[in-house]
Amino acid sequence: MLPELTDLDHFRSLLAQAPAADPAAQAAAAERNGQLTKPPGALARLEDLAIWYGGWRGTGRPSIEKPQVIIFAGNHGVTAQGVSAFPAEVTAQMVINFEHGGAAINQLAKLAGARMDVQALDLDRPTGDFTKGVAMEDADLLAALQAGWGLVDPNADLLVVGEMGIGNTTPAAALACVLFGGEAADWTGRGTGVDDAGLANKTRVVAEGVALHQGAIKDGVDALGCLGGREIAAMAGAIAAARMLRIPVILDGFICCAAAACLAQSSDGALDHCVAGHQSAEGAHPVLLAKLGKEPLLSLGLRLGEGSGAALAIQILKGAVACHSGMATFAEAGVTDG
Ligand SMILES: Cc1cc2ncn([C@H]3O[C@H](COP(=O)(O)O)[C@@H](O)[C@H]3O)c2cc1C
Ligand SMILES: O=C(O)c1cccnc1
């Protein structure tokens, strides 16, 4: 069991001591990979994925039995500035849809054999509008981090975190901008589909938020409080918890990657237990993935969020691990090695 987070510095210090993958297990997985009945390298990235996965799970012959998908929902004060093509009440309506099994993520999680949890975070209390003040005070941020931190099943062997929060591509863009620099326009995209005037307005909002807060932001945790959102912080908390538990994570789209980026700032290798599930259609997602040093597994032009692209990618990882652990070696099969 993981300890409860007592304060933000406690979270920071846990991140700084996060465990690494098991090098012996990784070496054993690499050795096994070299003996399987295929030309060397023929399964390409699937081979790398299986070796990476085995290293984190501490075994040279892993399996994926218990994937977990967690969807966090939050509302954003910044929606008052007209940054989304949809009204804020859709967040709560979609939570009910998730609970009834009617959303895209329900279908994809089920197909991947994943348990799915939905956690709505104070939907009737939107975060502060970050163009006017902080999105979350420390206590609020801590509660959101803890919500994610505490929801990861210690027995899960793979984690996908997804989000629902009308307006949340705006805080995601602001986080990326403050963490990686550049102009607001470089990071601001169309989200649910704002028109050109909407995009210009959204870019202004991101620029104002970054200008107001950047002087107060020393690290990713500060950034989450000033510019983030509850579901974004909860995703960061869950990704961090997975690291402590050596549970590999598949990252989803732009918003999920912005949450992860807040952890990446805390220490080198903080996202070594994560792979990028897909590249979304949000304009800045490829740049964000490049900043995180992650190559997406899929690129289908999705622009949904909800963990949908990552949930789909569970099946790629399952394929990698199934081949790695299920295939015969040359010796076992009596196949002549080259
Ligand atoms: C019906 C519906 C379902 C969704 N599921 C995810 N999102 C996605 O769209 C939102 C982000 O886009 P923006 O920043 O433009 O509001 C988030 O809720 C995200 O999860 C949805 C959006 C809608 C409308
Ligand atoms: O990249 C994403 O995950 C995304 C893009 C648009 C809207 N919602 C999510």
From TrEMBL:
InterPro entries in the record: Nict_dMeBzImd_PRibTrfase, Nict_dMeBzImd_PRibTrfase_bact, Nict_dMeBzImd_PRibTrfase_N, Nict_dMeBzImd_PRibTrfase_sf
GO molecular function: nicotinate-nucleotide-dimethylbenzimidazole phosphoribosyltransferase activity
EC numbers, comma separated: 2.4.2.21
Pathway: Nucleoside biosynthesis; alpha-ribazole biosynthesis; alpha-ribazole from 5,6-dimethylbenzimidazole: step 1/2
Catalytic activity: 5,6-dimethylbenzimidazole + nicotinate beta-D-ribonucleotide = alpha-ribazole 5'-phosphate + nicotinate + H(+)
Keywords of the record: Cobalamin biosynthesis, Glycosyltransferase, Transferase
Keyword Transferase among UniProt keywords: yes
Catalytic-site annotation from UniProt: E306 (proton acceptor)
Statement: the UniProt record of this protein carries the keyword Glycosyltransferase: yes
One Pfam family recorded for the sequence: DBI_PRT
Domain of life of the organism encoding this protein: Bacteria
Described function: Catalyzes the synthesis of alpha-ribazole-5'-phosphate from nicotinate mononucleotide (NAMN) and 5,6-dimethylbenzimidazole (DMB).
NCBIfam families in UniProt: cobT_DBIPRT, PRK00105.1
Similarity comment: family membership: Belongs to the CobT family.
Protein name: Nicotinate-nucleotide--dimethylbenzimidazole phosphoribosyltransferase
Gene: cobT
